[in-house]
Amino acid sequence: MPFSILKVLESVCSRVAVVAALLMALIIVLDVLGRNLFKVSLGFSYEVVSILLAVMFYSGLYHVHKTRSHVTIDLLDRYFVGSFGRFIYWMVYLIECTFFTALVVTVFIQSYESYKFGDVFLFLGVLKWKVILVIAVLALIAWVSLLVAAPAHHLQEDSLQEDSL
User: Fold this and answer.
1) Which long-range contacts (CB under 8 A, 24 or more apart) does 43-47 make?
2) Which of 15, 59, 65, 69 is most buried (most C-beta within 10 Å)?
3) What stretches pass through the bilayer (predicted)?
């Protein structure tokens, strides 16, 4: 079995997403129980859950981009077939790549701006730029998945359409 960096990235990202979701749920449950039973809240829960949500989202995007399984509106898909369908597919894909590229660059810029300003999380005492940088790296990994997966997916659709004819 050949080594594939993309499979390793997918495996790592999926595990990170699951762990982030579990930790987020655990912190929320502990915070609610603490507030209701002991009248004491976890001061850091909002910050940690926010961080974990971003980590879960961007690490989960690797699989979503790879399988092209995000939410789409497919009401007109049956009309977009053949060459016109391929043109529409690639136009949408290029727009998606453009916007996601802008998002990844923006998150990296935000990390740098936070570094320059010296932002610190209120309750955690952690420098924000470090957390944002981790999220930016996860977004970059998801961007790689977006670039790698789209052409293969569309070729599979073309072969399925040809087989059904």
Assistant:
1) 43/123, 44/123, 44/124, 46/123, 47/121, 47/122, 47/123, 47/124
2) 59
3) 12-30, 42-61, 87-109, 129-150
Contact 88, 80 (CB under 8 A): yes
The three-point CA angle 98-101-102 to 5° equals: 90
The residues near 94 (Cβ < 8 Å, ≥ 6 apart) are: none
Structure tokens at 46: 């909002």
pLDDT category, 1, cuts 50, 70, 90? Answer: very low
Q: Is the confidence at residue 7, as pLDDT, over 70?
A: yes
Note whether 119 and 127 are within 8 A (CB). Answer: yes
Q: pLDDT tens-digit profile of 66-112?
A: 877 766 666 666 777 778 878 888 888 889 899 999 999 999 999 99
* CA distance linking residue 80 with residue 74, whole number of Å: 10
Let me know: does 152 contact 78? Beta carbons within 8 Å.
Answer: no
SS3 state of residue 60: helix
How far apart CA 142 and CA 139 sit, in angstroms, is: 5
